[in-house]
Design a protein that fits this description.
Helix content is 55%, strand content 14%. It is an alpha/beta fold. It has one domain (2-306). A hairpin with a 2-residue loop joins strand 6 (208-212) and strand 7 (215-219).
Length: 327
């Protein structure tokens, strides 16, 4: 019974998303973007607990200069950036198909960094985050430079996964599964190709804990590991929204390479730390374009609380033992 219900749910979701994608491709861009912004405002109102939690994160991570009003505006921006990511790729793809030149939509800073990295023959790790127009980034990178691969988590709905993979396949080389995709990543880098990945979500127990915006957070290690093992340069890449509809600025920063003189773990950690510092600077500069709705600090905070409780329990047991033994 549960499998049948799941199949029905999958089909309904697939049909709904397909209808929305078709609507986005024929409605005027201004109408679609206006609807997305309106939807974001509505969701912001309808999810008060999520809104308050995100506002608390903003105030904690950006410091005392951010008051309640500023935090509220930043979180409204987070809801808006999430909604816009759902439609921008389809709109830009349509615009390009109708003859719009990429440079009419996006200005690129640091193009020389990526061209040099690709010419090196060691592949390239294009390291992004849930900042700005992250869903659109693969399309514009593939259009402006060369088709890239994209690391992505497989969707729970197999019908939607097939739809999304087919869509991405129109302008990228394809997708690499976030779980179990290591062999494919190795082949991609050995062939000198570029692969894009989003690295800013909570990595859980498998990550490396280090500072992000002033508090411990569990970071994904994959970019550091690949940069060290395959000498692949890791380039921070951000696609930021500019004023107006469908106007963007792509920022490609200088490549970060693993230091061969350092021990393996230290070299990997340094790459991760430098990528994290790059992202932190961009979040501080454009906080309203970051996805504060995801709490990437929760694992490290939970682990710290657990360690503190365990230490307190050990201290209590030691005090009891000493008292029992006359200590």
């Amino acid at each position: 019974m549960s499998r049948a219900r799941s199949a029905v749910r999958n089909a309904v979701e697939d049909v709904t998303v397909g209808a929305m994608m078709r609507a986005v491709t024929w409605l005027p861009a201004g109408v679609v973007l206006g609807c997305a912004r309106a939807l974001a405002l509505g969701v912001n109102v309808m999810l008060p607990a999520r809104r308050r939690h995100a506002q608390a994160l903003v105030r904690e991570r950006l410091g005392p200069r951010v008051g309640e009003a500023s935090a509220s505006r930043i979180v409204e921006g987070a809801f808006r950036t999430l909604a816009l990511n759902a439609v921008e790729t389809l709109l830009v793809e349509r615009a390009l198909r109708r003859g719009t030149r990429p440079d009419e939509l996006v200005t690129v800073e640091g193009a020389e960094h990526l061209r040099t990295a690709l010419a090196g023959g060691r592949g390239a790790l294009l390291c992004g985050a849930h900042l700005g127009a992250w869903e659109l980034t693969p399309l514009l990178l593939s259009t402006w430079f060369t088709p890239i691969w994209v690391v992505a988590r497989r969707l729970d709905n197999p019908r939607l996964e097939r739809r999304l993979a087919a869509h991405r396949g129109r302008f990228t080389r394809g997708s690499v599964a976030k779980e179990g995709g290591a062999p494919q990543l190795v082949r991609i880098l050995r062939s000198g190709e570029a692969v894009g990945m989003l690295l800013d979500q909570n990595a859980g127990r498998g990550g490396v804990v280090m500072d992000f915006l002033g508090a411990p957070s569990s970071h994904h290690k994959v970019a550091g590991v690949l940069a060290r093992r395959f000498r692949a340069p890791a380039l921070p890449v951000y696609l930021l929204r500019e004023p107006g509809n469908l106007r963007f600025r792509m920022r490609i920063e200088a490549p970060i390479e693993a230091d061969p003189a350092l021990p393996a773990e230290e070299a990997e950690r340094e790459v991760v730390a430098r990528l994290s510092a790059s992202l932190a600077a961009q979040v501080r500069a454009h906080p309203e374009q970051y996805l504060w709705l995801h709490d990437r600090w929760r694992h490290a905070q939970r682990a710290a609380r657990l360690s503190a409780r365990e230490a307190a329990a050990r201290g209590s047991r030691l005090a009891v033992a000493q008292g029992t033994n006359g200590g």
